[in-house]
């Protein structure tokens, strides 16, 4: 992403890069030489070693073949851990690993669905199951990853989580009445936590129809980062020229939000309608 947040040195992706660099230097190979063996550029190798790029499956397999002994699958196994830990597409990993877990405040807008970190397992599984050409194994991997990500909202020092949700989401049938009752009940439950705020947004608000997004406020003076969703590949950035318009859009949407106490009452009323 532009103006990337430095990766967590203990993350699987950082360990992947550090071990790759260690073995390359021990073999007295340049980044360009390893790049030729992997079929990529010196810049791509540099980004792998600095944890600025998530390795592909072929990257991991070729590194195992280059540096491994006796059929070692170290890089392949670590790459699987990187992806399976969070579920979802590879390009999302930099947000899930290096931004979201360290945020002081997370702001989330969604005009179509319950925000991912507030979804129940059944609700999330229904959404993933409808992805084109997805396998049952991939569905379960993504559900597992989403449930893992939810852990950041638990514990002793969770981020402040501020969710804005279009009111029409409460009546969008995802999985049937039982799934919807459970999901809306879960919203009412987690809204009692002091670190979580849920506000519904009037369906007449047009400022957010372009799509869902998240804003992360980070510690130690780091710039805010955003994730903006799309049907192809989301955008992750800390570039002020990208972040500022998202902030402006968030504030415009928030101007159409119902007070929190009214929002919770609306959620309870909608939950009773799912019979």
Automatic annotation (TrEMBL):
It comes from the Bacteria. It holds the Pfam family HTH_31. InterPro entries: Cro/C1-type_HTH (IPR001387), DUF5753 (IPR043917), Lambda_DNA-bd_dom_sf (IPR010982). Residues 20-74 form the HTH cro/C1-type domain. PROSITE patterns: HTH_CROC1. Gene3D superfamilies: lambda repressor-like DNA-binding domains (1.10.260.40). This is Helix-turn-helix domain-containing protein.
């Amino acid at each position: 992403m532009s103006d990337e947040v430095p990766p967590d040195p203990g993350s699987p992706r950082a360990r992947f890069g550090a071990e790759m660099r260690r073995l390359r230097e021990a073999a007295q190979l340049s980044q360009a030489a390893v790049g030729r063996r992997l079929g990529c550029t010196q810049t791509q190798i540099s980004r792998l070693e600095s944890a600025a790029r998530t390795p592909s499956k072929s990257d991991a397999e070729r590194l195992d073949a280059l540096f491994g002994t006796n059929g070692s699958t170290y890089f392949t196994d670590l790459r699987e851990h990187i992806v399976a830990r969070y579920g979802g597409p590879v390009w999302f990993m930099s947000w899930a690993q290096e931004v979201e877990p360290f945020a002081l405040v997370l702001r989330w807008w969604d005009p179509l669905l319950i925000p991912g970190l507030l979804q129940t397992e059944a609700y999330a599984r229904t959404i993933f199951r409808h992805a084109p050409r997805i396998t049952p194994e991939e569905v379960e991997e993504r559900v597992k990853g989403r449930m893992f990500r939810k852990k950041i909202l638990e514990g002793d020092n969770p981020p402040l989580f501020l969710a804005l949700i279009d009111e029409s989401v409460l009546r969008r049938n995802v999985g049937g009445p039982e799934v919807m009752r459970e999901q809306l009940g879960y919203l009412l439950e987690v809204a009692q936590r002091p670190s979580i705020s849920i506000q519904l947004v009037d369906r007449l608000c047009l400022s957010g129809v372009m799509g869902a997004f998240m804003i992360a406020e980070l510690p130690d003076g780091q710039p805010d980062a955003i994730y903006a969703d799309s049907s192809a590949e989301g955008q992750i950035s800390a570039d002020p020229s990208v972040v500022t318009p998202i902030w402006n859009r968030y504030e415009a949407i928030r101007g159409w939000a119902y007070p929190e106490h009214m929002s919770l009452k609306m959620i309870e009323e909608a939950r009773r309608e799912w019979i």
